[in-house]
Amino acid sequence: MTGTHMMLHEIIEEHHERIGHIRKYYPYFKLAETSFTQFKDGKYSRLDMGYILLAVLRFFIEENNFKEKEVLYSEYETFVTALLRRDFECYLEEEENKELVSYIFDKITNEGKPFRYDYFDPADRKQKTIRMRLIKSSIQDGAVRYSITSEAVEFYLDTKEIKEESTISVEQLLLEKLINSQNFRQGAEVVRRINNEVSRLQSRKNEVLRILGQDVFEGVRAYEEFLDTGMRWFEEEQHLFRKNSELIHKALERAAQDEASGEYTSQYYRAMDDIYALELELKKAVQKHSELLTACTQLQKQADERILKARVQSLRSSFDFRQAVSRMMERDRADLLGELIRPLANLKIRKSFYLPNLDHLLTYRPDQQETGEKIGEQVEETYIYEDEAIEQRIYDNFEILLSELFHWLRQKKEFTLKEWNGYLEEKYTERIFRNGDYYTFLIHICLKEEYRVQEVRKNPDTFFEEIMNAFLDKSGNRLYEDLAFAVRKDSGVSLQILGLFEVTNLIFERRDMDGQP
Amino acid sequence: MDSRNLEKAMDIISALLINEEIHRDRGANRGLYEEYLSNAEVYDMVHLMAGKMNLCLYEYQGGIYVSAGEENRVYGYSNEELKRLLGLRLNRELYLCYFLIYQVVATFYHDSASDTFIEYMGVEELIHNTDSAFAKLTADLEILVLKEMEENSFKTLALLWEELPLVTGEEGTGIRASRNSKRGYSKLVFNFLVSQELLAEAEERYYPTARFRALITNYYEEHRGRLFEILNREEEEDDAADQPDSGE
């Protein structure tokens, strides 16, 4: 029972840790499998991406960790070109070669995105994602430089050098043996390797900080792992450093004794230069190691700060770029983009007259010049909605009809709709009777039996009177100011219009100012 | 007030005003950064002066960065000036460029609170992202005609983008900034961002600079409320305008 329980515990609880170890191999197999079959119809499928990847990683280790400098793209390009020619006899035209080398770079850097590996974590019963990068970039003096990530170094070393505990400790034990056997030259090599490992841990520390900034949960895991694999050995390493320093110190003392006693044949005296070189390297290593130690104690503080910050941030909302753009799109206001983009620009410091404009003045050709479109003040457009357009049409048509009606009223004391229609037909053709506004006009005019312009001017109380008022305002003359008229229905007489419509005949009668016949 | 401190503060402000880098680890202004960080009076003066000039100051990973913010008539660019800077003629072209820049920002950053996982992006990725962003709008574009739409409509931008060829015959292998093709526009935008020290270029891959990161994580965070207000306030106004007149 206990056995089963332990087995299940191992399967479930330790799965995450196992995946954590496997993940460094993931990019290798992903790249090795498909890379060249998709490129240029598989023209380069004989190239082995796995081999190229390992070679590139080794090149980066050489440059970053041994020479302690970051790699420029041109250096990478030279290296890969040489590799392709040497190992695959791949001699290409410059342009094609450039393209191939760039393709390899994009693959190794996964086009700038981390390699993502999804897996199921049975302990949390959740689908999780782990991310890994092989090459990272930084910008110095405006130029992009590349370096290998600590995970990639680990992967590379794992392919041959098995790492079960602190490499620094193992190397130190080896160093102790070498010093004891008076192999100082080899010892210096070992110390260089220790330096290398210290640099890797330093870079891993920075990565842990970066991950903490991006994803606090992932970051905390990376931090704990770093504590487990890196920092727990510090004490032991410090102790070994002290021990080795003492050994070197003793070796130097013995060499000094040999020199004093004139014993020029002694091994210690002969190896004097090597011992000095070893001491120098070791001092460097001790220095770097204590720097790392300080940095790691700082890391603890920074990690706590980041976690706190993440907690605070999870409670308040941030500016979501995708959400903002969809809001702008919803409202169809592309001009708002300017509000978000303009602050990104550098400060505008060119205040003086732009000298090249002088040339423009001299060579100005009005016809050839493209005129720029002005962005005016952000005044909202005046929209005319459909109902507004209809309203305007009604106003226009009513004005025409009113003008005709008033014209007739001034000329005739009394007339019927039939007579007036005859006139309208003559003037506007029978199309006027197909216009709906004509009938609306008749309906509106029949709402009241009597109209006195003076009263309408003072107090228009129907829609029709408002239009009449607007018409009188617009016409500007005072011809109709005294006009008054009555509208009566000529009961029993109806008019057939165009054989389609039927309206009751009306009688219009002009009145005097007081409304009297 | 110590006149030496005032002098240092003025040095920092003038370095920022002429777009010089002030960074802890590099450049000629390392001393200024030290002064800014360790001398409280200098720090306060720098912030006071920047505030009075309507500038926003941000510290990011050992550097100080500045933005003119919005509506800064002295140091900020207007739409017209940016149009000239980008070599554009029409408003819709400018808005399209804004949209492309926004796509670059949104590719690197999901929101202002988190850091970016993406190391670099290229012309092809920008084109692809812009295509997808416009995909919703381009679905019913067939029935629309450019002149019927307003210049600040996203449909106008989508149509303008949709009508561009991916690449023009003249371009050959290299990509040139132009208004003739999608690649040309993308290159135009990337060139602009490089000139504004927001991106750095290596072999047609574009990497975000510290200045870019500083502005994205700070500016939008700080002005979040105001930006939301701009979007929402106008939204309410639009809604009000859409309401039919009650006749009162």
Quick description:
The complex is a heterodimer of chains A (517) and B (248). With 517 residues, chain A is an alpha+beta fold. Chain A is 60% helix and 11% strand.
3D architecture notes:
The complex is a heterodimer of chains A (517) and B (248). Chain A is an alpha+beta fold. Chain A folds into three domains: 1-162, no CATH class; 164-315, no CATH class; 386-511, no CATH class. Chain A is 60% helix and 11% strand. Chain A has 21 helices and eight strands. Chain A has helices at 2-13, 15-22, 26-34, 49-66, 73-88, 94-108, 150-158, 167-180, 184-214, 216-229, 234-261, 267-270, 272-315, 321-331, 337-341, 356-362, 386-411, 417-428, 436-445, 453-458, 463-475; strands at 115-121, 126-132, 135-140, 143-148, 414-416, 450-452, 484-497, 501-511. Chain A has a four-stranded antiparallel sheet with strand order 5-8-7-6. Chain A is elongated and about 150 Å long. The termini of chain A are far apart. The mean pLDDT of chain A is 80. In chain B, strands 1-3-2 form a three-stranded antiparallel sheet, with helices on both faces. A two-stranded antiparallel ribbon of chain B has the order 4-5. Chain B is 54% helix and 8% strand. Chain B has helices at residues 3-17, 30-38, 40-52, 79-86, 91-108, 123-138, 154-162, 182-195, 210-222, 224-242; strands spanning 22-23, 56-60, 63-67, 199-202, 205-208. In chain B, 39% of the residues are buried. In chain B, helix 1 crosses helix 3 (40-52), helix 5 packs across helix 7 and helix 6 crosses helix 8. Chain B folds into two domains: 3-67, no CATH class; 79-208, no CATH class. Chain B is built from ten helices and five strands; from the N terminus they run αβααββαααααββαα. By secondary structure, chain B is mainly alpha-helical. Classes of the chains: A alpha+beta (517), B mainly alpha (248). The interface between A and B is large, with 63 and 87 residues. Chain B: Pfam families: DUF6063.
